[in-house]
Design a protein that fits this description.
- The protein is an alpha+beta fold.
- The protein has one domain: Hotdog Thioesterase (Thiol Ester Dehydrase, Chain A, Roll).
- Helix content is 23%, strand content 39%.
- The protein has three helices and five strands.
- The protein starts with 5 loop residues before the first strand and ends in a 5-residue tail after the last helix.
Length: 137
């Protein structure tokens, strides 16, 4: 079974744009990060709770991003998250930033689960892995 995409709405604020009113390219990474955090939250996992109770955090190991079209000040966007691969210590999420269904950005983000203090890779806790494994690679 393939997991449905999680969608998080985002409005573009002035602070997100450059002098021309276009979203600055690095700010898309913030949009993607917030959507992944909200996706985890929707699954019952707060990142601070993961750190405090499980002793782990997720860090971005790799981000592959294609910029297809610009977003502009005051645009209403949807940021989509679709998990595509769950490994022992990694999670790959396909993401898109869309405006009215048209993709502006496409990305694949690889997350690594690491020990919260040593920042060394560790296995994703079993209960977390189970709650994220309702999709087929």
């Amino acid at each position: 079974m393939r997991a449905a995409s999680f969608v998080w709405p985002v409005r573009v604020y002035w602070e997100d744009t450059d002098a021309g009113g276009v979203v600055y390219y690095a700010n898309y990474l913030k949009f993607l990060e917030r959507a992944r955090s909200e996706w985890l939250r929707s699954r019952g996992w707060e990142q601070d709770r993961l750190r405090e109770e499980q002793g782990v955090v997720f860090v971005v190991r790799r981000a592959e991003i294609d910029y297809l079209a610009p977003a502009r000040y005051n645009d209403q966007l949807d940021v989509r998250c679709t998990p595509t691969e769950l490994g022992r210590a990694t999670l790959v999420v396909a993401q898109a930033v869309e405006r009215r269904g048209a993709a502006l950005v496409r990305a694949f983000v690889t997350l690594a689960c690491v020990h919260a203090e040593r920042f060394k890779p560790v296995r994703i806790p079993p209960e977390l892995s189970l709650s994220l494994s309702d999709f087929a690679p």
